[in-house]
Design goal:
The complex is a heterodimer of chains A (248) and B (607). With 248 residues, chain A is α/β, with parallel strands linked by helices. Chain A folds into two domains: 172 residues, P-loop containing nucleotide triphosphate hydrolases (Rossmann fold), CATH 3.40.50; 66 residues, no CATH class. In chain A, the strands form two sheets. A six-stranded mixed sheet of chain A has the order 6-7-8-3-9-10, with helices on both faces. A four-stranded antiparallel sheet of chain A has the order 2-1-4-5, covered by helices on one side. In chain A, strand 7, helix 7 and strand 8 form a beta-alpha-beta unit. The longest helix of chain A is centred in the C-terminal third of the chain and has 16 residues. Chain A starts with 8 loop residues before the first strand and ends in a 9-residue tail after the last helix. Chain B is an all-alpha fold. Among the domains of chain B are: 201 residues, no CATH class; 206 residues, no CATH class. In chain B, 71% of the residues lie in helices and 3% in strands. The radius of gyration of chain B is 24 Å and the shape is globular. The chains are: A alpha/beta (248), B mainly alpha (607). The interface between A and B is medium-sized, with 25 and 17 residues. Bound molecules: adenosine-5'-diphosphate and magnesium ion (MG). The site of adenosine-5'-diphosphate (ADP) has 10 residues of chain A, from helix 1.
Chain lengths: 248, 607
């Protein structure tokens, strides 16, 4: 498992070309997530952010390029196989199993795991980490508020004990209170050693907690660098900061 | 009163049998939004596996039941793998059509294996009956009820408490999210097909013992009943499917009690239509029910149709018109006359299924209306045949449109199910409306084709009449496709929401398309009636509707010339190769499967 362990990159996308039918979404995209970091992918609407996450998860297969996870090529693997290697997903719009209870949703997150006792331990840990979730544990997930659902989605992804967690616009549609809470939680999760790849439209929010950022513009990485530098970069200020959803 | 208790018990028992069929359909629909039209064929396969075990190998009942469940489950896995998984990415109607193809192949395979003759499948259980109130219950009734209950309980436990069961539920709610949790959705599909097939086969075995009768023709009705029960309970709703099945069983049983057994299916299909129109999510959909499932995507593979030059078409028509002058052409004339009449049906269907995107499975009903209208107008009202045929066209246009009108608000799969039900209802009304239609006796002595005083009953004349009508209506339909009207039809097919937003009245245009379609189908049925001289309610069955759809797909949906080619190919080629009737169904099924898989745009391309 760990030839790549000595190197810094946990996830590495290189030369990715993606298409939907004839329409090209990514053009020779390169991107890395270093071990232990929070990396955010910024970009406007329809720039190809969600598709990037789908490429990582194997839901969309790139026509060219490779995805490496922990040093190994996972480009051709099925989504379940990729998940089983230690990637967790918080999909766009959360995508909870609405008719199942919160508890069942969390346990679905541990679907690939066989270590019953450890799963139970993680389950208790999630209830501690997300008290709001604990209160609603026997409710159907579909009846929760947007913020609560986001918590469940994050807890569900963590139940798989991922080494990398991928999140697609985790703050979208949340009240300001929940936005802050979610950002704090992402930072906390990262402190526990989980690397984070996070897709966001709202650059100012994401760069608050990220270590490194990429800016995607119509399928091309237009800018990248440490989060602090990006936040001060006038080009990104022009293009993205103060986007319609800035929370202050 | 005692009789009513018996009818209730009978209704519940039959409902249990339907439930075993419908639960599987609901599971499959839940995870893959597919209506499995092969379910009835698996049910028949189950009955025959059971017969082989019990009658040939002499196995005891528990072993027979286990063999049926395992054998059918294996069959279900094979169907999923070979017939459906390759279609995972295509429009949703594609796998539905594939299951129809699979059902043809399975039914005919069974018929070749076991011959079409019915067999008896006696129940090995003791023949005692216990008195309950004033009704009675037999050992087999108890077995069927127990099988239903135990299956439901096991299924409930599986879905609620097992890892794979959770995966099934998660996939049903959001398959992409389930995959992101590491669920292998292919495995889920396979599991669900295995369960559905196992229960479906068990249902076939129990029915066979209940009526002490099995034959290879019982598939289609079984599929229909399972689908009806599932629609009543709400597509994809497993508990709903059970409740819907019991309700269907009771409704049929009471209907039979009140009106006689020929009304059984009429009650089933009328119930289907009522539920589809009033509660398309089923009777038990609560507030948290899914919004009416969009199921968008008609079976239109985008393609550029072949541009066949006009002179080539003209030359073909001319050659066809000259064929009767060839010596020894009698057999070819007979085959081709039939082909032209099927082509008429196919251009009728391709207008609504291809151009308008409403995949109708009820065109046999239109043929029946046309055939009966012309036959009865000529026989009972004394109208000359050359008038009764066009009159039948108009009657069919009007009646067909009026009958499908309730289905206009439905989309995609639901249109197919509703029209299938409507087609069945037409046949059943004809069967039961004796004062008008002569009922099960059929209509004998339908006068031959004439025009004024000219007798047209020679094979040559019939051939020319059919060809001329086809050319005329075919040309008119081709012209229509190029007009504003044709473009509007295609706009509705491609995006009905957008079309409506542009101010297009969907009902009016759908009505118009069904009227034009009904006219052509009615004429086809009418001419057939005068050629056959005898018709009854089973002259055109839903199998004909499916065959017509196969022709349309083969030629290219919406493509008029393609429909003609599809019809000629499917009626003519089996004759050329002198396939016997059993093999023909097999070929239709394989053609359907192969076209959907490898050339969904058809021979000439969609238009
Ligand atoms: N399943 C799909 N089929 C076809 N086109 C798609 C599909 N999903 C996304 N697209 C298109 O690809 C482009 C990128 O989409 P996406 O990755 O969702 O962007 P973002 O997440 O940055 O808003 C958009 O133009 C979108 O319309
Ligand atoms: Mg997105």
């Amino acid at each position: 498992m760990s030839e790549g362990g000595s190197r810094g990159d946990l996830l590495e996308l290189s030369g990715i070309d993606t298409f939907y039918g004839p329409a090209q979404v990514h053009f020779a995209m390169n991107l890395e997530v270093r071990r232990g970091q929070i990396v955010c992918l910024l970009g406007g609407n329809a720039s190809g952010k969600s598709t990037t996450m789908k490429v990582i998860l194997g839901l969309v297969k790139p026509r060219a390029g490779t995805v490496r996870f922990d040093g190994q090529d996972i480009t051709g693997l099925s989504t379940p196989a990729i998940i089983a290697r230690g990637i967790g997903s918080v999909p766009e719009a959360r995508r909870l199993f609405g008719a199942m209870t919160v508890r069942e949703n969390l346990l679905m997150g541990a679907y690939t795991r066989r270590d019953r006792a450890e799963v139970n331990h993680d389950y208790d840990r999630m209830l501690g980490l997300f008290p709001r979730v604990a209160q609603r544990i026997n409710n159907r997930a579909g009846t929760l508020s947007g913020g609560e659902q986001q918590m469940v989605a994050m807890a569900r992804a963590l139940m798989g004990r991922p080494r990398l967690i991928c999140m697609d616009e985790p703050t979208m549609g949340l009240s300001p209170l929940y936005v802050d809470r979610v950002l704090e939680l992402i930072a906390a999760i990262n402190k526990e050693g989980v690397s984070v790849f996070m897709v966001e439209q709202n650059a100012s929010l994401a760069l608050q907690i990220a270590h490194h950022g990429y800016v995607l513009r119509t399928g091309v990485i237009a800018l990248s660098g440490p989060a602090g530098e990006l936040a001060r970069d006038p080009r990104i200020r022009d293009a993205y900061l103060g986007g319609e959803r800035t929370a202050a | 009163m005692g009789a009513w208790l018996d009818y209730t018990i009978n209704g519940l028992i039959v409902g249990n049998i339907y439930a075993l069929l419908a639960v599987g359909l609901a599971l499959i629909f839940g995870v893959s939004h597919l209506i499995n039209f092969a379910q009835g064929s698996i049910y028949t396969a189950g009955a025959f596996i059971g017969w082989t075990c019990a009658q040939r190998l002499g196995t005891p009942l528990p072993v027979t039941m286990a063999a049926v469940v395992l054998g059918c489950a294996a069959l279900g896995v094979v169907i999923e793998r070979v017939g459906l998984r390759p279609l995972a990415g295509s429009a949703r109607i594609a796998p539905l059509l594939a299951t129809i193809g699979i059902s043809f192949v399975l039914d005919q395979g069974l018929q070749l294996l076991y011959s079409p003759d019915p067999r008896s499948l006696p129940s090995p259980l003791p023949a005692w009956r216990i008195q309950v109130g004033r009704g009675t219950i037999g050992a087999l009734d108890i077995l069927i009820a127990a099988t239903g209950l135990v299956s439901a309980a096991v299924l409930f436990g599986f879905l609620r408490f097992s890892r794979l069961g959770w995966a099934v539920r998660a996939t049903a709610q959001d398959s992409e999210a389930a995959r992101q949790m590491g669920v292998n959705t292919d495995a889920v599909n396979r599991t669900v097909f295995a369960i559905a097939a196992g229960l479906g086969g068990l249902s076939g075995l129990l029915v066979g013992m209940y009526y002490n009768h099995i034959d290879t023709a019982m598939s289609f009705q079984a599929t229909l009943k399972g689908v009806v029960a599932q629609v009543i309970g709400g597509m994809g709703n497993v508990p709903g499917a059970i409740a819907g099945s019991l309700l269907l069983g009771l409704t049929e049983s009471y209907g039979v009690a009140l009106f006689g057994s020929s009304y059984r299916n009429l009650f089933a299909f009328v119930l289907l239509l009522i539920v589809l129109v009033l509660r398309p999510n089923g009777l038990f959909a609560g507030r948290q029910a899914m919004s009416p499932e969009p199921l968008t995507g008609t079976f239109i593979a985008p393609s550029r149709p072949w541009d066949v030059p006009r002179w080539a078409v003209a030359v073909c028509v001319l050659l066809a018109a000259l064929l009767p002058f060839l010596p020894n052409s009698a057999y070819a004339l007979q085959v081709l006359t039939n082909a032209w009449l099927y082509a008429l049906l196919a251009i009728s269907l391709t207008l609504v299924a291809g151009t308008l995107g409403q995949v109708s499975l009820g065109h046999a009903g239109l043929l029946l209306i046309g055939a009966y209208a012309s036959a009865l107008l000529a026989l009972d009202s004394g109208l000359p045949v050359w008038l009764s045929i066009p009159a039948a066209g108009f009657v069919t246009a009007a009646l067909g449109t009026a009958l499908t009108w309730p289905a206009f608000r439905l989309r995609s799969h639901y249109v197919s199910i509703a029209t299938l039900g409507i087609g069945e209802i037409v046949g059943l009304v004809i069967l039961n409306w004796e004062s008008l239609t002569h009922g099960p006796m059929g209509v004998t002595g339908v006068p031959p084709l004439t025009a004024g005083t000219v007798e047209l009953d020679s094979p040559q004349a019939s051939y020319w009449v059919a060809l001329a009508v086809l050319v005329l209506l075919g040309l008119m339909q081709s012209r229509l496709l190029g007009t504003h009207l044709g473009r509007t039809f295609r706009a509705i097919r491609d995006d009905d929401v957008a079309a409506r937003a542009c101010g297009v009245s969907l009902d009016r245009y759908k009505g118009l398309a069904f009227a034009v379609s009904g006219f052509a189908a009615g004429i086809s049925g009418a001419i057939s009636a005068h050629l056959y001289s005898y018709i009854n309610n089973e002259t055109f069955t839903s199998q004909v509707s499916v065959l017509a759809l196969t022709m349309v797909i083969l030629g290219g949906m919406g493509n008029v010339l393609g429909a003609v080619i599809g019809a000629v190919a499917l009626t003519g080629l089996p004759e050329v190769f002198r396939f016997t009737a059993e093999y023909r169904q097999l070929i239709y099924g394989l053609v359907l499967l192969l076209m959907i898989r490898f050339r969904p745009q058809g021979i000439l391309g969609t238009a």
